[in-house]
Amino acid sequence: MGEPILKYELIDDIAVLTMDDGRANALGHNMIDAIGASLRRAEGEARAVLLLGREKRFCAGFDLEVMASGQEHVQKLVTAGAELMLDMYTHPLPIVIGCTGHALAAGGLLLLSADARIGAEGEFKIGLPEVAIRMTLPIFGVELARDRLARNHLTAAVTQARIYNPVEAALVGYLDQTAPAERLRETALARARELALLPQPAFRNTKLKERSATVKLIRDTLMEDLRTFDGATR
After folding, report:
1. 86 touches 212 (CB < 8 A)
2. Alpha carbon distance 109, 104 (integer Å)
3. pLDDT of 20 higher than 50
4. In sequence order, which residues have a C-beta less than 8 Å from that of residue 192 and are 6 or more positions away?
5. Where do the DSSP E strands lie in the chain?
6. Radius of gyration (Cα) for the chain, nearest Å?
């Protein structure tokens, strides 16, 4: 077995998950499975979740080795990623992301799936570059962006593949605020503690109602849209 790629800590009532694969925190099956298992564990012992990346690298997107290994493998990975993002988007606990650095492609989609997003200040790239690299963004990604990004920035962010620095990303809607890199963890943990105080099941039930229309659209289109998805131009 290799080294763990996700660290789980319980700090007070907050489940703190730290992704670190030693590289760019690409979303492969192992990382997806590790995050999913940690989210399920958190339901039984926490009141909120904080997801962090390694220094200067939050998530660089889906694992490029898998994305270059053929349509069947691409479809399986992207489907698993979509399911993880839906799990986050509908999770009964508040999910906060501390975006420690670059967050591109699937990394940007993770930001769109969380309840609160705080980004480290710095020369980091955040966004959805799929169109610029000859990929058609799946419907689930478009709909998460439609729900979470500012309406007047949606076309630039999605169809025109614009990439933003953290300050711009907070204006567009990938982030809610920024913080100095050295204070990111404590700032994000403080936000998680605030959200953990919201009473249940009121938070869970209202979150599901708020997002039900987007979830239904994604569920209705997910399998058909990904059935022919191969990561290339269509």
Report:
1. no
2. 8
3. yes
4. 14, 48, 49, 50, 94, 96, 116
5. 6-11, 14-19, 48-52, 56-59, 95-99, 101-104, 116-120, 126-127, 163-164, 177-179
6. 16
Inform me whether the pLDDT recorded for 74 exceeds 50: yes
For 28, 57, 99, 132, 171, the CA distances from 121, given in Å and listed in that order, are 27, 12, 9, 25, 14
DSSP-based three-state secondary structure for 138? coil
58-97 residues labelled b (16+ CB within 10 A) or e (exposed): bbbbbbeebbeeeeebbbebbbbbbebbbbbbebebbbbb
DSSP 232: S
CA-to-CA separations, 44 to 92, 123, 170, in angstroms, rounded:
11, 37, 32
> For 86-104, what is the mean pLDDT?
98
Per the CB < 8 A criterion, the answer to whether 97 and 177 are in contact is no
Q: How far apart are CA 72 and CA 40, in angstroms?
A: 27
Mean pLDDT of the region 136-144: 96
Mean pLDDT of 129-137: 94
Sign (positive or negative) of CA dihedral 4, 77, 222, 141: positive
Calpha distance 5→1 (Å, rounded) = 11
pTM of the predicted model, to two decimals?
0.95
What does the DSSP 8-state code read for residue 136? P
